[in-house]
Predict the structure.
Amino acid sequence: MLVLQDTTFEPNIDLMLPLPDSDVMSESMKYFDKDGYELNQLEQLYYTVNNVDIGVGNQYHTSNQIPWINDIHDYEVGAVLDHSFMSQRWEYSDDAKDQLTKFKDERPILNKLLGIRKKWGIDFSIDFVDHNNCFEIFHIEYDSFDFENILMMKEKAENIILNTDWYDGAKEVLRRKDEWIGLCSDDQSDWKAQFFGWHRAFDNQKIIL
């Protein structure tokens, strides 16, 4: 049984507190995630000093993840929930932004952080597993820079997720396997998303232009 967690997005996701200047100039900026929510070493320090939770999440990512939908039975056969969470990428403002601006000429790579736009996202994936089959039923990722939009799309996704019989849905997806099995990975996911009434499996937004 899938149930909503008692959690929600934060509307004001601004990193305002600065770091020691030495950290800004020395901490690694490698592995900057331009598409998603993973945080590199310098970003982790900013999130930590601003008291933002970046603990181990549902997929062991270092990011600001929020529990979303849970399987209270933790099934491992039949319709199996793989992961479900909301994510937030915070924007730099106030003293933190001023600090980055101060050092960006000396360390131009800091412009990556200054270019970040606050972003919210949802991610849900459910599979079907039995003794003879194992395949993805429905996997969606959706990002938005607009807070009202992400709330609307989150509600739309919840209506699909919580009101679908995923066992019966999986049987129908398997019955129509010849329609999607020859497609590439993303196209398979799109086919299944659209089958259940969602527009596109992976609708992600670049964090910087």
